[in-house]
Amino acid sequence: MKRITSLLFLLFISFTSQVFAGDQDTMGKTKLTFTIVSPGNLAQEGKQLFLSHAAWMKSTHSRSGPKALLSYDVSEMDELTNPTDLKSKSTGKKVFILSETYESPVGVEDHFARTPDWKDWPKFDAWLKKCKVTKASSTTIFNSLTWGGK
Fold first, then answer.
1. What is the C-alpha separation between 28 and 101, in angstroms, rounded?
2. Residues paired with residue 90 on neighbouring β-strands, in sequence order
3. Is 49 in contact with 120 (CB distance < 8 Å)?
4. pLDDT given at position 28
5. 33 contacts 138 by C-beta, under 8 angstroms
6. What span, in angstroms and rounded, lies between the C-alpha atoms of 145 and 100?
7. What is the pLDDT of residues 46-64, one digit of tens each?
8. pLDDT of residue 96
9. Sequence-distant (≥ 6) Cβ neighbours of residue 27 within 8 angstroms
10. End-to-end CA distance of the chain
11. What is the pTM (predicted TM-score) of this model?
């Protein structure tokens, strides 16, 4: 009975992995995500630093192989008093979400090894210290619905 249960579980996982995978599947890839809540008066500085960061990422990161950077996104919104009510009042702070997807954990390791070479790293590090930051530096994607966003 235990063996049948295990087999059914494996079949379920296999099936659901295929059901939830999108056309541009990122299942099993590695994700780096930072959530940064910036004081309102520092939000523009953060935005400028992220523009510099994107240019540096584009010029220095691999596009193929185990270190490949597959996607890079930074999004922003006002922090809301009730995050599930998009019409609630703003707290006056700005939320930035940095999301990077790599082929494997080696890409994240390479990214952090390169970070001191980014000309604005000291400014970015100082800015982060003035914000509330949650970091998930190297997670494995186990569910993916990625179709391209066109």
1. 10
2. 80
3. yes
4. 92
5. no
6. 16
7. 999 999 999 999 999 999 9
8. 98
9. 17, 21, 141, 142, 143, 144
10. 47
11. 0.81
Token pair listed for 100: 């990077």
- Give the span between the Cα atoms of 53 and 51, in whole angstroms: 5
Tokens describing residue 16: 């659901």
**Tens digit of each residue's pLDDT (9 = 90 or more) over 24-36:** 578 899 999 999 9
Place of tokens 């609630």: 88
pLDDT at residue 23, as a whole number:
52
Residue 141 CB-density burial (10 A; 0-12 exposed, 13-18 middle, 19+ buried): middle
Asked if residues 139 and 33 have their Cβ atoms less than 8 Å apart, the reply is yes
Q: What is the spatial distance between Cα 81 and Cα 67, in angstroms, rounded to a whole number?
A: 39
Write out the DSSP string of the chain.
Answer: -HHHHHHHHHHHHHHHHHHH--TT--TT-EEEEEEEEE-GGGHHHHHHHHHHHHHHHHHHS-SSSTT-EEEEEEEEEEEESSTT-TTSPEEEEEEEEEEEEESSHHHHHHHHHHGGGSTTHHHHHHHHTTSEEEEEEEEE----------
What are the residue ranges in the chain where pLDDT is below 50?
A: 5-18, 20-21
